[in-house]
């Protein structure tokens, strides 16, 4: 197993394998297949790979038509372009039809890096989670990303999977089994829960280890599926640990923080904290520098956990 | 099966379809009569002469597909499906009402024969391309007919798709443009001119045929010609009259999306005839 890999690397090879397994996979591409790795599918199955050029709206419609004719239609580009350039096409031709269209967007979050804010996708998860009937997954590493792609291919209906550009630590071994709609418990603790997705999961693990050094025991949940959301795990975390911090590479107003806050607020109110993009954009820079500058770090999670713990205690909770 | 009505039979069917359109929009109190009346012959010629389809088996994989991209033209779509036997004609009067299968804009599979969700313009041609690519991949010889409005041709996605279909040499695809010259607010040429539309389509690589969109002979000839074209898709520019058959609706932007009153309904039905 490699120590580090980009989640986007999962797409192409997994699709080739699934096609070899006999699934009627087709791929529709909008000129970013090299970056998303979807183009690897073209090498193995050229007749099942369709380039539409830089035309994301058409990409969605063509994918929907292929799906309606019995294909498992994958399409991919960057997170800023899908859903950004084709939201209404996704809404009408995919979400409202329930067709077998599997949208895999790479270059999620600000860790795109040097390309700057037009390429940094910090709104895609909120947009996609607003669409009824679309499953939304943010894999934490390449192992989970492979399984997310396979799950999407084998499960009827629309999917959105967000992958990333940088090589990040691999946290799961091959024995791991991703379950759609289920949070994965990475560490247990009684003082607070850190709920993270994507690139922030490893940072949550690191934050929990650092906090443990100070005697603060955190539960860590990988909330890889944002829709359908594992409300049970969130309510249990609130009830059993009494404080929650979310961590995401996305706008907290519409992303994981907002989703968790709705569940906690309506079912088991406890102090909440959030690590993620606040009301603003990032800039160009190396991906790890950006995460540092914009507070998407283990240290930021540690700080946020301490802040909610202070509120938890002042609330009279243990 | 291929439906084979004679021109006379289709003319009678078209008259019934126009009556349904008026009656269902009046009953609903809303809807889009103008762009439905303009497309009556275009759609009737397909369902009663051209399409390989079977109303008893709407999911038949070998069927030819009709994709309504101008999704507001549901009155003509549903009326033709009912006349073809996909569901009872009586059901047409549930159009746009609560719990009806006949939604204001078409939604896939709500009732038998509804091939696609539409209503947000510009999406149908892309979807048709996907169906054509799948058909070719699977070695099936079904054909796909996509109906677009002329106003709809202002959507950017339409041109993405117009670029794409010739690139893939989709000779199993026919795009029919209902060239009625009127869009939601006003006349197309004064909203955003499309002309020279035929030259643009040819430049994009389409085989282009212009017809009188209310003339069955010309429509059928164009559909048949399209079957013989190899290596490129065919676009049929069907010159039509918006609101065709009802004097006060004809070529009048006011009737793009408005229901007649009861009195207007009576006048319209009298003009259409039995």
Structure, explained:
In chain A, the strands form 3 sheets. In chain A, strands 3-2-4-5-7-6-12 form a 7-stranded mixed beta sheet, with helices on both faces. Helices cover 38% and strands 20% of the residues of chain A. In chain A, α1 (11-20) crosses α7. The longest helix of chain A is centred in the C-terminal third of the chain and has 17 residues, at 298-314. Chain A has 2 domains: 4-169, Rossmann fold, CATH 3.40.50.970; 184-313, Rossmann fold (3-Layer(aba) Sandwich). Chain A contains 12 helices and 14 strands. In chain A, 59% of the residues are buried. By secondary structure, chain B is of the alpha/beta class. Chain B has a single domain (7-272), classed as Rossmann fold (3-Layer(aba) Sandwich), CATH 3.40.50.970. Chain B is built from 10 helices and 5 strands, in the order αααβααβαβααβαβα. Chain B has helices at residues 7-28, 34-37, 40-50, 74-84, 124-137, 156-167, 188-191, 197-203, 216-228, 262-272, and strands at residues 65-68, 144-149, 173-179, 207-212, 234-239. Chain B has a 5-stranded parallel beta sheet with strand order 1-2-3-5-4, with helices on both faces. In chain B, α6 (156-167) links the parallel β2 (144-149) and β3 (173-179). The longest helix of chain B has 22 residues, at 7-28. Chain B is globular and about 50 Å long. The A-B interface holds A 26, 28, 47-48, 50, 52-53, 55, 57-58, 60-71, 73, 88-89, 91-93, 96-97, 99 and B 61, 107-108, 115-120, 122-135, 137-138, 156-157, 160-161, 163-164, 168.
């Amino acid at each position: 197993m490699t120590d580090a890999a980009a989640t986007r690397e999962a797409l192409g090879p997994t699709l080739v394998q699934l096609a070899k397994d006999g699934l009627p996979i087709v791929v529709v591409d909008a000129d970013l297949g090299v970056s998303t790795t979807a183009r690897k599918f073209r090498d193995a199955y050229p007749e099942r790979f369709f380039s539409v050029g830089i035309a994301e709206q058409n990409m969605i419609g063509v994918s929907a038509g292929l799906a309606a004719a019995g294909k498992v239609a994958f399409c991919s580009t960057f997170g800023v372009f899908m859903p950004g350039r084709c939201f209404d096409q996704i809404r009408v031709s995919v979400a409202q039809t329930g067709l077998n269209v599997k949208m895999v967007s790479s270059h999620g979050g600000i860790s795109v890096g040097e390309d700057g804010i037009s390429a940094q996708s910090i709104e895609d998860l909120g947009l996609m989670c607003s669409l009824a009937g679309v499953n939304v997954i943010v894999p934490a590493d390449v192992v989970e990303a492979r399984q997310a792609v396979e799950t999407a291919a084998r499960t009827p209906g629309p999917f959105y999977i967000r992958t990333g550009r940088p090589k990040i630590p691999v946290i799961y071994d091959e024995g791991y089994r991703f379950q759609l709609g289920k949070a994965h418990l990475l560490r247990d603790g009684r003082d607070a829960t850190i709920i993270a997705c994507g690139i922030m999961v490893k940072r949550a693990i690191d934050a929990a280890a650092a906090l443990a050094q100070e005697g603060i025991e955190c539960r860590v949940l990988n909330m890889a599926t944002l829709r359908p959301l594992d409300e049970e795990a969130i309510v249990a975390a609130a009830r059993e640990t009494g404080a929650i911090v979310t961590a995401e590479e996305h706008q907290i107003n519409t992303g994981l923080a907002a989703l968790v806050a709705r569940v906690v607020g309506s079912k088991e109110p406890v102090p909440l904290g959030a690590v993620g993009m606040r009301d603003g954009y990032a800039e160009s820079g190396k991906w790890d520098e950006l995460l540092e500058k914009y507070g998407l770090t283990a240290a930021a999670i540690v700080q946020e956990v301490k802040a909610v713990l202070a509120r938890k205690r002042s609330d009279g909770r243990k | 099966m291929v439906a084979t009505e004679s021109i006379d039979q289709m003319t009678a069917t078209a008259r019934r379809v126009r009556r349904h359109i008026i009656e269902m929009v009046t009953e609903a109190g809303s809807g889009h009569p103008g762009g439905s009346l303009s497309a009556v012959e275009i759609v009737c010629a397909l369902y009663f002469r051209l399409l390989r389809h079977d109303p008893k088996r709407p999911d038949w994989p070998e069927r030819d597909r009709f994709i309504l991209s101008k999704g507001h033209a549901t009155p003509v779509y549903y009326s033709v499906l009912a006349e073809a036997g996909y569901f009872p004609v009586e059901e047409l009067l549930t159009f746009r009402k609560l719990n009806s299968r006949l939604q204001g804009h078409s939604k896939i599979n709500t009732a038998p024969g509804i091939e696609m969700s539409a209503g947000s313009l510009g999406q149908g041609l892309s979807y048709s391309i996907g169906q054509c690519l799948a058909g070719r991949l699977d070695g099936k010889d079904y054909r796909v007919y996509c109906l677009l409005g002329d106003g709809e041709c202002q959507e950017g996605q339409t041109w993405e798709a117009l670029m794409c279909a010739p690139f893939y040499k989709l000779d199993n695809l026919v795009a029919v443009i209902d060239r009625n010259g009127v869009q939601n607010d006003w006349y197309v040429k004064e909203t955003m001119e499309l002309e020279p539309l035929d030259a643009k389509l040819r430049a994009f690589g389409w085989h282009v045929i212009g017809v009188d969109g209310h003339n069955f002979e010309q429509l059928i000839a164009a559909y048949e010609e399209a079957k013989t074209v190899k290596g490129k898709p065919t676009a049929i520019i069907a010159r039509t009259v918006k609101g065709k058959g009802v004097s006060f609706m004809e070529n009048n932007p006011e009737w793009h999306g408005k229901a007649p009153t009861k009195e207007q309904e009576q006048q319209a039905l009298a003009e259409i005839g039995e």
